Structures are given as C-alpha cells and as structure tokens.
Amino acid sequence: MMHSETDGQAEGARGAGGSAGTLDLNQLRTFLAVYRSGSFTAAARLLGLSQPTVTAQIRSLERQLDRELFERLPRGAAPAPFADELASRIVEPLDALAEVAGHGADGSAAEPVHLAGPAELLSHCVLPHLAPLVEKGVLLRIATGLTDELLAEMRAGRHDLLIATTRPRGRGLAAVPLADEEFVLVTSAAWAERIGGPARIAADGPAALHGVPLVAYGEDLPIVRRYWRHVFGKRLVCRPAVTMPDLRAVRAAVTGGAGFSVLPRYLCLDELASGALALLADPDDPPINTGYLVQRPGSAENPHVALVRDHLLESARDW
Fold it and tell me: Who has the most CB within 10 Å: 60, 95, 133, 223?
C-alpha cells in the first residue's frame, strides 16, 4: 500500500515539475532529509552518506524535476518554493515507510524520542496526553530542567524535542508556539480568611499580604516578580520564606498553609475547585507566558519524533 502511495506522490511531483522519469525513492528520502535538517551536511550525517553523495542525489532530482529545490547558503540550504510543495506531497508516505523500516524483524521499536521541558508541565499536561503513543510502541526518554540549560543540551544533540518557556534565539532551532500558561496569585483557605481574601487585595493591593510568608520557586523570584510588575505595577521587595525548584512542591507547601505564591493556573485547578487553595486576585489581564515547541535539526530521521511533535501540537489545546 505504501509503495503505491509513494508512486502516486512521485507521479504528482512529475506533474508539477514537468516531464521526468520514475523518481528514485532514495533521492526523495535524501531530499526530505535536507529539507528537514536545512543542511546538506546534516542530511549526510543523518543518512550515513557522504556530502558529495547527498549533493549528487539532489542535483539529479532537480534535473529530473527541472526545478531548483534548494538555495545553497554559506550555512545550510534554504528550500526553494517548489521544495515546499514537493515536501508536502511526499512527507506522509515516506514517514510511514520509515516507521515500518524502523521496526526490525524481531518487532523492536524505532529509536526513543528524547523530550525535555519543565518538570511540572511535562508531568501534569504532557505525559498523560502522550500515553496513547506509548501504547502504540513509541519510546520516550524524558529530561527536565530550565529552558536555557535544556536548549544548550539540545544544540549538543541530546534532545529531539523541547518545550521551552522562551523562544530560542538564533536560526539553529525551529520553534512554534505551543500553549499559553496563565499565572495566578494563591494561598491556602486559612490564610485567605485571615487577610480578608480577594476583596482586601482589591482594596489595599499587595500591602494586604504584609506578614504573609512567600513560597517561591527560587531566591530571585522570577515568577512572582513578573506577576507583581504586570498586575500591581510595582517592584516586589520581599525575601521568600521557602524556596524549592519545583512548582508542584510550591503548590503543596502553599496548600498546607506555608503562605502565598504565584503558580500556573493549570497546576492548581483541582485545589482551586476544592477550596484547598484560594484565588487572591482575578485581573482582567492576567500575566501569561507562551511555551514553544522546539525541534532539533536532524531529529527527523526518527519517524516517531514527528509523531510526538504532531501529537503535542494537537493536544496542547486541551491543556
């Protein structure tokens, strides 16, 4: 079935590009590797070929199609307009073929997909949605940490996909917006009652929290300081009573009565619904942060990487 689909795509490519003989499947694979990695050198490394072989295959394909596929740049290769059309025609059948080829005679699975990101988001939102892929045989290797550190590791080839809390700089990594996370100011029900709840915050502003211990992710208060600037228009001057580099632990401490904090709304929906946590402010323009899905160039030789990427983009709307 897949052979006939690929032949159909090649027929479509011939129709779009002028007269050509039967297109070589290996050349199409090489084209897709260059298209995805953005580099003849990277494609050669992925395919286990020499760079001259990759160049020769692309030139042969361009002659058959009578179309230029890539603009050679000092660093890498930029797809020509027809390359986008060709890629859209062949990507699904070639990825499907690669997935079949990625299973050995013993039924062993393709290479694991290395996914990284914030521990809280991965555990609370991402992994539950990836469970159906695991059941289908996708192998996952999860790493957690801060975005800057994980980006450095990705550039070194350690991760295939990364959920980043900031858009990566530079041209080396492609990133697409994944989801927005909203931040909320919360405390325990007992503390909310003691300070007068949201009404007191609305009347007196952050001064109402004087004397209430602050629980934070880190000593520099990155999340809380941003909330103060955005919502109250003031600089936060406060030393945290408790710090712990895991927002799930911050949530647990605040729920237990340790004080107040700022958390992603997705992380405390259940506690807010049950009353274990109380919302201290509900601004019309809450602070949000956009997460980005980043893919390492050269990871596309594993068809499961594209499978996980597409599943994340589809499921993010439910987070």
Answer: 223
Architecture of the structural domain at 2-101: Orthogonal Bundle (1.10)
Spatial separation of the C-alpha atoms in residues 310 and 299, rounded to whole Å: 14
- pLDDT tens-digit series, residues 161-211: 999 999 998 767 888 999 999 999 999 999 999 999 999 999 999 999 999
Cβ–Cβ under 8 Å, residues 223 and 202: no
DSSP bridge partners of 294: 162, 175
Angle between helices 40-47 and 51-65 (to 10 degrees): 110
Query: Nearest-CA neighbor of 164 among 230, 111, 115?
Result: 115
Report CA 283 to chain centroid distance, whole Å: 28
What are 273's two structure tokens?
A: 């619904």
SS3 214: strand
Instruction: Provide the token pair at 147.
Output: 């975005």
Q: Quick check: 80 and 67 in contact, CB under 8 A?
A: yes
Looking at the DSSP bridge assignments, the partners of residue 26 are: none
Class of domain 113-173+296-318: alpha beta
Domain ranges of the chain: 2-101, 113-173+296-318, 181-289
State the alpha helices, DSSP H only, in 205-302: 222-227, 247-255, 269-274
Confidence (pLDDT) at 74: 78
Torsion of CA 160, 162, 167, 172, to 10 degrees: -10
Could you give the dihedral angle defined by the CA atoms of residues 132, 138, 141 and 146, in that order, rounded to the nearest 10 degrees? -50
Task: Round to whole Å and give the CA distance between 197 and 188.
Answer: 10
Res. 45: pLDDT tops 90: no
